[in-house]
Amino acid sequence: MSAAALKSLLLEKSVRTGTFTLASGKESDLYIDCRVTALDPFGANLIGELGWAAVRERIAAEGLQIDAIGGMTLGADPISLAVGMTSAKQHPAEALQVFTVRKEPKGHGRGKQIEGNFKEGSTVIVVDDVITTGGSTIKAIDVIEREGGKVAFALVLVDRQEGGREAIEARGIPVLTLFTRKTLLDEA
Question: CB atoms < 10 A from the CB of 111, how many?
Answer without folding.
Answer: 9
